[in-house]
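Summary for the steering committee. One of the milestones for this cycle was to obtain a three-dimensional model of the protein with adenosine-5'-triphosphate bound, which we needed before selecting residues for the alanine scan. The sequence and ligand used are listed below.
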Amino acid sequence: MAIIEVKDLCKSFKVPVRKEGRLAAVRNLITFERTLKTAVDCVSFDIERGEMMGYVGPNGAGKSTTIKMLTGILLPTSGEVEVDGLVPHRDRKQLARRIGVVFGQKSQLWWDVPVIESLRLLKEIYRIPTRTYKTNMEMFGELLDLHEFQQTPVRQLSLGQRMRSDLAAALLHNPDILFLDEPMIGVDVVAKERFRTFIRQLNRERQVTVLLTTHDMSDIEKVCESLMIIDHGRIIYDGTIAGIKEQFAHYRELTVDFADGVSEVESDRAELIEREGQRARFRFNRHRVSASELITELAGKYQIKDISVEDTEIEEIVRKIYQRSPSENGPIES
Amino acid sequence: MKVVRALQFRLRRGVWYELRLYFKFIGIAIRSRLQYRSDFLFGIAGVLILNLVNLSLIWILVARFQSLAGWQYWEIVMLYGTFLLSHSVYAVFFWHLSNLEDDILHGRFDQYLVRPCSPLLQFLGREVNYMGVADVVFATSVFVLAYHNLGLNWTSVQWGFFAVAILSGTVIETCIVWIIGALAFWTGRSRAIFFVYIRFQILGQQYPIDIFGMWFRIFITGFLPLSFMNYYPLTILLDKPNALGVYGIGFLSPIVAILLLALGALIWRRGLAGYTSSGN
Ligand SMILES: Nc1ncnc2c1ncn2[C@@H]1O[C@H](COP(=O)(O)OP(=O)(O)OP(=O)(O)O)[C@@H](O)[C@H]1O
Ligand SMILES: [Mg+2]
């Protein structure tokens, strides 16, 4: 049985209708009109125990809203959620003991006291046995460099230091599931690498299930095995990372610098996707056309100065998916 | 039977757990506040000055008319002192309920909701308000002064009643502010309502409500039951007729407090279930 089961989950917010035009301010004041804004639109997915799932999508796609429903913060408008056999909003307190949550944008620590005091308080809140607490603190000290700033009040920490403290706070009670909503904002490259290693290690050693949202695709590539892409509240891809590469890797790109004097270019075998000065980018399906065929064709037709071939990166794939117009946004067909 | 006992045990353990945490939160809140010492000192000075101004205003008024609706100067001072005693406990521990809308609007309840303890107690434990300490000191001295000047000599039963009244007063004020704050779960903001409330509170805290018209008396008894904080209990303790002319209304203070508490809890539960967080 999957540890997270989501079926037809929707969330819409009531937002006031903003009037425009004459006397807008006054009319806004006296109107009680509300419209429904759908943030999460009927999504279904399963996450298995021990899975590391990346959750990406453009701004406003509905990632945070999904996570808030999975953690019991928000009551779903409709649909079913089960996390570790519990219904999050109903069994919120019980669930809280089994999950760790990091919202990168908001700290969960006590602002004016040293980090260590927040952690001690969390020990009480979660009733963490002293042994577990000590083991974990040692581990965090090493892996997150907590020693360095654990006596500093949170308000004086740098962004990256605060993030590390927040991660430690979310993990102190050995949660089975970890929800990370943009946990890497402001974390430097070295710490970021450590972060990733740390999460992978937790997953390996403790079978922690991870749901990670981020805008940095390399986080996903380095940490996760599976990926969900959400856009306008709908899940448009749910599968492995290898799978999405498989599906999209049949597109490759060829960049060609044409000699001066070449104006109109086109190819029977590839799609021209960008043209800037003498440089042009073509996209082609590697199963149908080989790079050398394409180059031979172009070289036969035009004078060429330089050429390079690239594989599509995850980032590229995802960007393309984001850029499709909303009407095209059905599930991706391979 | 066994089930009932197990349930009782769990309940008691739950309450104990929550309370213990609440006091830990308060401990942290105190230590947080102590970091800003000058703010503390200015705050205390400010509250003392404010209270002195209030009292001298009453004095000017009463000196002019000798008495207000049958209440002598020191009786009115006692009215004020009694209100202030209740209010000061509220001010120390629950003052920030008036800022509830901020936490709701900015989605700060997210963090309270992902922890296994009461979101309300987490919110309440987030702050203590030192300025309330000045209220405590001032209230006590004003009350003692009035007590002596009125030549009172209360029995222990009367003192007991007085203590219950003070406690009820704290609960009443806290609940009113709590309920107003919780309205922000629906309306987003509730500060405007809070300011309106403050206006009424100022009227109720320092004047016997006999000086107002009937409609206002009913309003401040039945709808915004502020007069149960000081006025009604004192009519009993000072043996005065009350503004509604019904004997014994003052004994209802604890009941009003409990009713408000229940109403607050109900509204709170509803509001929290509909909590919408914030977009970022
Ligand atoms: N509390 C709220 N009230 C009203 N609308 C909201 C609220 N929270 C989110 N929304 C709306 O729901 C949509 C989804 O928001 P959400 O925060 O889930 O996006 P996201 O995928 O996390 O985006 P980002 O990458 O920017 O964090 C947005 O259009 C947002 O405006
Ligand atoms: Mg988000």
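Key point for the committee: Residues A 13, 15, 37, 39, 57, 59-65; B 276-279 surround adenosine-5'-triphosphate (ligand 1) (CB under 6 Å).
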